[in-house]
Design goal:
Number of domains: 1
Number of strands: 8
CATH topology: 3-methyladenine DNA Glycosylase, Chain A
Structural class: alpha+beta
CATH class: Alpha Beta
Shape: globular
Helix content: 10-25%
Largest sheet: 8 strands, antiparallel
CATH architecture: Roll
């Protein structure tokens, strides 16, 4: 596990996110996601993401008749956090993309813990490091992210995405995890061979839902 100096790193500008969702998703791999709660700083290297597009993407929250109370943040401005609650006990962190008025977001599915690991372990009640953040609900819990973070600017200091060197691993794409529809689209991206990527099953969500994370 490589150390990372969050104090000297540069926050990604809003312009990074104001682009096509798929391009942003791929280029987020290797960047460092950081959460600051009071005096606690936690975070890690992004190793797995999923892209979610507009109304034509059946798996997206934007696949509705327009803007709703739930999906409004997806329509911009870019460079904000879109957080929602699912399965009765999981928060999910997405990073808003595209030009304002166009729906798009990247779900952060897994990170490699690098900053504030002891605090993350405490939040996850003693879970081993390898399993701390290998799923979207797990990483939100480890980073202390809740619905209170929905809509905040990523450069606000509460949640940041920091620039970092391009990953040395190859980027793999696949279908998305845990969806009833839209799972077949090749919009999941992850770093090959990285031990912190989730083990989520690709394909349709089982009819009898099991409350586990992908």
């Amino acid at each position: 596990m490589e150390p990372f100096d969050a104090h000297s790193a540069v926050t990604l500008p809003r312009e990074f996110f104001a682009r096509g969702t798929v391009d942003v998703a791929r280029e987020l791999l290797g960047k460092v996601l950081v959460s600051r709660t009071q005096d606690t700083v936690t975070g890690g290297r992004i190793v797995e993401v999923e892209a979610y597009l507009g109304a034509d993407d059946a798996g997206s929250h934007a696949a509705t008749r327009g803007i709703t109370r739930r999906n409004a943040v997806m329509y911009g401005p870019p460079g904000r956090a879109y957080v929602y609650f699912t399965y009765g006990n999981h928060h999910m962190l997405n990073l808003v993309t595209e030009a304002e008025g166009v729906a798009g977001a990247v779900l952060v599915r897994a990170i490699e813990p690098q900053i504030g690991i002891d605090a993350m372990i405490a939040r996850r009640r003693g879970v081993q490091v390898a399993r701390l953040c290998d799923g979207p609900g797990k990483l939100a819990s480890a980073l202390g992210i809740t619905l209170a973070d929905n809509g905040i600017e990523l450069s606000s200091g509460r949640i940041d995405v920091l620039d970092a060197p391009a990953p040395h691993e190859s980027v793999i794409h696949s279908g998305r995890v845990g969806l009833s529809v839209g799972h077949e689209l090749q919009l999941r991206f992850y770093l090959a061979g990285n031990g912190y990527v989730s083990n989520g099953r690709i394909g349709p969500r089982p009819r009898h839902r099991v409350l586990t994370e992908g």
